[in-house]
């Protein structure tokens, strides 16, 4: 199943759903950034696997370069800290959520297997 997270109402893209993650810091690989963000934000440990997709989306607040990876939960359980809610969904259920626009291509790839 796939972990989906809903953004809070104090943020840009309020109430939109996204894949947990965050911004890559200087000198960091994308995979290391994802592992770090999940440890910080969800208080659990993951193994980052193969890339699902890469998209570039221009929002009114800026351009987001979004890379999405398959991950496996290896220790702990995701905890709700920064998000409004989190949900585990089967890939076929992903399209029922209101996703951030940058995520739509990745969601469609996952939904279509
Ligand atoms: N983590 C994550 N961010 C996403 C996704 N789709 C998408 O458009 N974004 C956007 C939201 C943010 O503008 C940016 C990620 O930055 P972030 O994780 O630090 O989010 P944030 O809102 O806390 O950052 P900020 O407002 O402080 O800039 O990418 C997604 O699936 N996952």
TrEMBL record:
Name of the top EC class for this enzyme: hydrolase
GO terms for biological process, alphabetical: DNA repair; DNA replication
Entry's Gene Ontology molecular function annotations: 8-oxo-7,8-dihydrodeoxyguanosine triphosphate pyrophosphatase activity; 8-oxo-7,8-dihydroguanosine triphosphate pyrophosphatase activity; 8-oxo-dGDP phosphatase activity; 8-oxo-GDP phosphatase activity; metal ion binding
Keywords assigned: DNA damage, DNA repair, DNA replication, Hydrolase, Magnesium, Metal-binding, Mutator protein
Domain Nudix hydrolase: 1-111
DNA damage as UniProt keyword: yes
Source organism superkingdom: Bacteria
Listed CDD domains: NUDIX_MutT_NudA_like
UniProt EC number: 3.6.1.55
Cofactor annotation: Mg(2+)
Gene3D superfamilies assigned: Nucleoside Triphosphate Pyrophosphohydrolase
Catalytic reactions on record: 8-oxo-dGTP + H2O = 8-oxo-dGMP + diphosphate + H(+)
Family, similarity comment: Belongs to the Nudix hydrolase family.
Protein name as catalogued: 8-oxo-dGTP diphosphatase
